[in-house]
Specification:
Nucleotidyltransferase, domain 5; cell inner membrane; five-stranded mixed sheet; alpha/beta; extended; single chain; 7 strands; DctQ
Length: about 475
């Protein structure tokens, strides 16, 4: 824009232009742009590469198996110059190894079709055409290497052709490589059809697409995910026709995607992808003075933490939950027995109340120690949630450090007092008091472990992940 163009703008238009120029650029953290488009940090702010001071060096581990062993024996004693014969016993002073690849070259097998003239009738008889002449001359291993380098290493046909020539001394045309990959596709068809069939019966499907270059042309890489399968599909278009052809009329209960129009209307209900939304909210939080983006960002952070907890393996808690359920069942059975005996038979039972109290003590401390997550506890965290990540880190370090020191300091005295209570028993059930309150020692040990674990995470290099999840560790079981 030239100077004259700026002079013709009104005051409001100039203000809008200046505000747009002051907005930060979108990055992969605040938009759907790929990380490769992010501007690199300036060299004076970049961290130096290589090992950091104090880093413990590590050597390559020796191979478990080897193809050949070479022994090196000393020939002469350096002290007395005596000759050391080969039949003297020896012990290993050190082991070292060298690793080398064998010479790689293609194994070419030439098939000759011979003809022989019959000595009886003089007819020239030729052998049957061998199988080697009916198909491709390239074997299955060459097909496998071509598929691996093309799909996993993303080599172009030109670079793939050069790789075969340089590594194996094998000349293959680009057309031959293309035909080779097409023949290899048939091996993946059954698993592909199984994955698509699972997608077409799924109740929840998540989908996304991104631009990609395929053989020099612009195209799109689509990905579809359900709880049973993940399906990738490359297409020349970004239109909804790709989804309709793949799903063949199946409408899942929930379709999860971004807000792109081609992704809408393919399920009974639509769930906006929270990852896309979180990036947009992060950009809005940077460019706006309104509190709404900040509050929405905090809400999304708690939502992601909740999702991580739901995705955890619940089987590891089965034993702890079973024990807590057993104590609850004992307490409830004692309560019912007391109600029936008191109000139906008019004969109150004293020991049921004692049983309920003991079971309640174990339920409370056992569940708090091993089953409840940090977010399940009551927390006054209004100031914490409104603080930046660096301040939240200090909150966590001070809080967990104080709890760790307090519980660790009182643990020996608590153990001493609980063991001392073995001299007395409950009045009716005659249960030793040290067994009744032993669960509190387990509770203290659990709190000490969780505080120490959380404190190490906050002090570690990945402290931001800990802060985003609220700082605490998950359950012990």
């Amino acid at each position: 824009m030239e100077r004259g163009d700026l002079q013709r703008l009104s005051k409001d238009e100039l203000i809008d232009l200046v505000l747009r120029l002051q907005r930060p650029e979108k990055t992969s953290r605040t938009s759907s742009k790929p990380p490769a488009t992010d501007r690199k940090e300036r060299r004076d702010k970049a961290k130096p590469g290589g090992a950091k001071p104090g880093h413990e060096g590590k050597a390559r581990a020796m191979s478990e198996t080897f193809d050949r062993q070479v022994d090196h024996r000393p020939g002469q004693c350096p002290c007395c110059r005596a000759k050391l014969s080969d039949d003297l016993p020896a012990e290993t002073a050190g082991e070292y190894e060298t690793i080398e690849l064998p010479e790689i070259h293609p194994v070419v097998e030439r098939h000759r079709r011979l003809s022989v003239r019959c000595p009886s009738c003089g007819v020239l008889v030729a052998a049957k055409v061998p199988d080697a002449a009916k198909g491709t001359p390239f074997g299955s291993r060459i097909h496998a290497v071509a598929t691996y380098l093309k799909t996993f290493q993303a080599l172009s046909y030109e670079r793939l052709q050069r790789a075969f020539a340089d590594l194996y001394g094998l000349t293959i045309s680009q057309g031959g490589l293309m035909n080779m990959l097409r023949r290899s596709q048939t091996a993946f068809v059954p698993e592909r059809d199984t994955a698509i069939a699972a997608l077409r019966r799924a109740k929840v499907v998540a989908s996304d697409e991104t631009g990609v270059r395929i053989e020099g042309s612009n195209a799109y890489q689509w990905v579809f995910r359900s709880n049973e399968a993940v399906v990738h599909r490359a297409a020349p278009t970004r239109g909804a026709v790709v989804l309709r052809e793949l799903m063949e009329g199946h409408r899942p209960e929930v379709w999860c995607s971004d807000r792109y129009s081609a992704q809408q209307g393919h399920g009974a209900a639509h769930q906006t992808c929270l990852a896309h939304l979180a990036r947009n909210v992060a950009y809005a939080d940077q460019t706006s003075d309104d509190m709404l983006p900040s509050r929405l960002r905090l809400w999304l952070k708690r939502t992601f933490a909740l999702a991580d907890g739901i995705a955890d393996d619940e089987a590891s808690q089965a034993g702890g939950e079973l024990l807590a359920a057993l104590f609850f069942a004992i307490m409830f059975a004692g309560f019912l027995l007391q109600v029936v005996s008191r109000y139906i038979f008019n004969q109150p039972i004293g020991w049921t109340f004692e049983l309920c109290v003991v079971a309640y003590i174990w339920i409370v401390f056992w569940s708090s120690a091993f089953l409840l997550k940090e977010r399940d506890h009551v927390a006054f965290n209004v100031i914490y949630l409104a603080s930046p990540p660096g301040v939240q880190r200090w909150f966590l370090m001070i809080g967990f450090g104080f709890l760790l020191a307090a519980f660790a300091a009182s643990l020996p005295m608590t153990i001493d007092f609980v063991t001392f209570m073995a001299i007395d028993r409950t009045p009716l059930l005659r249960l030793r008091f040290d067994w009744v309150f032993a669960v509190y020692i387990l509770f203290m040990l659990a709190v000490i472990y969780r505080c120490a674990h959380a404190l190490l995470r906050v002090l570690g290099p990945r402290w931001r992940e800990t802060v985003e999840k609220g700082g605490g560790s998950e359950t012990l079981l």
